[in-house]
Design a protein that fits this description.
Length: 423
């Protein structure tokens, strides 16, 4: 008996019909990020578990519930990367990419793994494009990198996005806020959901991020970080916002914005889309000035973000794709055995000359071949039958106007190259 296997829950195939969007996201990221001086880094898919637990934080949902952790054959605890920042920091320190006279700008893309409850926009294997800058505390970088991200989304044709921004303070001011929050929530503890009961002492800021209405109610009127930021954090945040203003980037201050990872200091932000359901964050990031040091490197402030590609792909409109960029240029419709042989040769000559060709392999009728050509999204179809072969010609059909002209078979590469250039 044969078994029909299916991909596991929360994991999906990206099929040829959708791949254009993915390639568009990747290509545009390379173009835009390289314009801002970023270079690509390729980080491993798995790391020692501590790389993630130490950076993301022992009491985060990711570390407590969502990591794919396993022992390898030597008994080491390894984890499939739930995000990229920790690995980039590990690599930065390991390879001594530190350079006191310049900043390092790195980007990466690829799959991440979190064992979350699958739902629309939330997968167990999902894809991110991330970027990290090391070596400056200057708020100009915060604004510049957020600006780069917004330009990127603009290039993808995304609309109705909102940048939500906060400053989570630093080691000096955040503990005071934390205490005030615990004090405020003390009397309301019984209202909190089971998870937030646990978060109450270990990671109370995370309660702001809970989706339960009771927890949401419990935090109403609570103190926010705004009144607790130290002078340094306040002035850093104000400068970041003023640089954003200079770039004409709109933002909404959200003092209750906390992130699902514990390494952030000062700036934290998310980009949310109005066009998505409950999983509406398409990118998130912020500053993490202590992490390099915690990983054994020299004190190195850092800032970065990651884009969720699965969610972003959902928002890309077909019109934004560089129109049928990977669609073949020409379809060859052959009628009859002789024409079929000619089409076999011709398509290869066209390909050798940089023209993408497709054809029908089923000996279908002209009507159905033209239907196929339309499905491929080609601009032109070359029709060849016995009559045309005898004359050394092909019929060149413009698929949008349905206009047909005869084209000299001998000169077909030259004719097609010229036509395609005219588009
Ligand atoms: P994050 O907010 O955990 O940040 O993830 C960034 C984005 O990845 C999210 O906004 C979302 O679009 C996407 N994402 C996260 N989990 C899933 C999932 N289960 N399914 C589909 N998409 C998902 C980070 O990962 C940080 N490393 C960002 C960063 C870089 N901070 C500083 N540098």
């Amino acid at each position: 008996m044969t078994t029909k296997y299916q991909a596991i829950k929360g994991v999906k195939d990206i099929l040829p019909a959708e791949i254009e969007k993915w390639q568009f996201m990747e290509k545009t990221a390379r173009e835009v990020f390289e314009l801002y001086g970023f270079s690509e880094i390729r980080i491993p898919i798995f790391e020692r578990t501590e790389v993630f637990t130490r950076s993301i934080g022992e009491t985060t949902d990711i570390v407590e519930k969502e990591m794919y952790t396993f022992s390898d054959r030597s008994g080491d605890s390894l984890t499939l990367r739930p995000e990229g920042t920790a690995s980039v920091v590990r690599a930065y320190v390991e390879h001594n990419l530190y350079n006191p006279s310049s900043v390092a700008k790195l980007y990466y893309m690829g799959p991440m793994f979190r064992c979350e409850r699958p739902q629309a926009g939330r997968y167990r294997q999902f894809y991110q494009i991330g970027a990290e800058v090391f070596g400056t505390e200057n708020p100009e970088i915060d604004a510049d990198v957020i600006g780069m991200l917004m330009r990127y989304f603009e290039r993808l044709g995304l609309k109705e996005l909102e940048l939500q921004i906060n400053s989570l303070g630093c080691d000096e001011c955040r503990p005071k806020f934390r205490e005030a929050l615990i004090e405020f929530l003390k009397g309301k503890r019984s209202l909190l959901c089971e998870d937030c009961q646990k978060r109450f002492e270990r990671n109370p800021l995370r309660i702001f991020d809970c989706k339960s209405t009771n927890c949401h109610e419990a935090t109403k009127g609570s103190p926010t970080i705004e009144n607790y930021r130290c002078e340094g954090c306040k002035s850093h945040f104000d400068s970041t916002l003023s640089y954003l203003d200079r770039l004409n980037i709109q933002y909404a201050k959200n003092p209750k914005l906390v992130r699902g990872l514990d390494y952030y200091t000062k700036t934290a932000f998310e980009i949310v889309s109005k066009g998505l359901g409950s999983q509406n964050a398409i990118a998130g990031g912020g500053r993490y000035d202590k992490l390099v040091e915690e990983f054994g490197g020299p004190p190195t402030p850092a800032f970065g973000f990651a884009i969720g590609m699965d969610r972003t792909a959902q928002l890309i409109q077909p019109s934004a794709l560089s129109l049928h960029a990977s669609a073949p240029h020409v379809f060859i419709a052959a009628l009859g055995e002789r024409a079929d042989l000619k089409a076999f040769e011709l398509i290869n000559v066209l390909r050798q000359n940089g023209i993408r060709g497709e054809r029908d392999y089923e000996g279908s009728s002209l009507k159905s071949q033209l239907r196929k050509a339309n499905k491929f999204g080609v601009k032109y179809t070359l029709i060849i039958g016995d009559k045309e072969l005898d004359k050394g010609k092909a019929i060149l059909r413009d698929m949008s106007s349905a206009q047909q002209d005869e084209a000299d078979m001998e000169r077909i590469v030259e004719i097609m190259t010229k036509k395609l250039r005219e588009r």
